[in-house]
């Protein structure tokens, strides 16, 4: 069942400015965890502000359970937001911070106590209820912020880069905790981040924004394996997708105007130039039958694999090597592209040319 519906939501802060958000249309299912990713300035915060009611829509509508919320006051929208800076009240202890919103809404003491203790238990905060926020770690403070949002029992949970103030290790743990919490509560969540790894880990579906427009919506695997355009292909996945220029010839594909590879790509036009995108795990180091011989300029050891940074003419690309072969900087490395895994993009529109 659909829970939240965005219908052509657009926002222009000033009529002389570009749209901060353009025609944002999305159906969010009940209990879904949607992650919104995009670079700085792509419209992520604008979207959250429109949902909360901190900003007015220029066009479009937002419906929660079939009801438009655009004319409702922020307090009546039944959404709870968790901010990156936690926004805890320093003079109140953990219990009072969690209970704060319930007290403002004049909920009974008994109900408040029951809900605070329920949230504290779920988030393992029970031993800290009497403690002030400054005595807590970053992860614990973030949990207090989550608990405060949970006790409101909102229809929609909004998370604005909730983990960006935590160190990498704690962030990994908290991502799993938020995912588990989401699964336990079964709530609908919109989670904003600019960290695409975090997005891939936690999302049921990812929405990729750029310059205010949706570039693609899909489950993590789908956007990684079948990006709609060059922006998505390069934004999702580390290392970024390798890009070669290529030409379709009568024999196959010529890479960088030099090397012919046998690729059976029927929907490209002969004589035209395209961009070929291929992931680093789809290029193999080989000893014979190579496509390219490139110079090794850098090696990153990642544990189970090495990331080789290679250069062929002006084109830099990366290859994941899973062997325990020893490489030396400056050495010529032979590689073969797994062309069946390549994607082709129009040079001008940067849209992916869909395979047959
Ligand atoms: N209050 C405002 N007044 C005018 N323009 C604004 C306002 N808030 C945001 N913008 C503009 O709207 C666009 C989208 O900004 P927004 O903050 O939504 O992006 P973002 O994806 O959240 O970026 P970041 O990751 O840096 O927080 C930007 O061009 C920004 O300059």
From TrEMBL:
It comes from the Bacteria. InterPro entries: AAA+_ATPase, ABC_transporter-like_ATP-bd, ABC_transporter-like_CS, ABC_transpr_MalK/UgpC-like, Mo/tungstate-bd_C_term_dom, NA-bd_OB-fold, P-loop_NTPase, Transp-assoc_OB_typ2. The keyword Nucleotide-binding applies. GO terms for cellular component: ATP-binding cassette (ABC) transporter complex, substrate-binding subunit-containing. GO terms for molecular function: ABC-type transporter activity; ATP binding; ATP hydrolysis activity. Pfam families: ABC_tran, TOBE_2. Keywords: ATP-binding, Cell membrane, Membrane, Nucleotide-binding, Translocase, Transport. Residues 4-236 form the ABC transporter domain. This is ABC transporter ATP-binding protein.
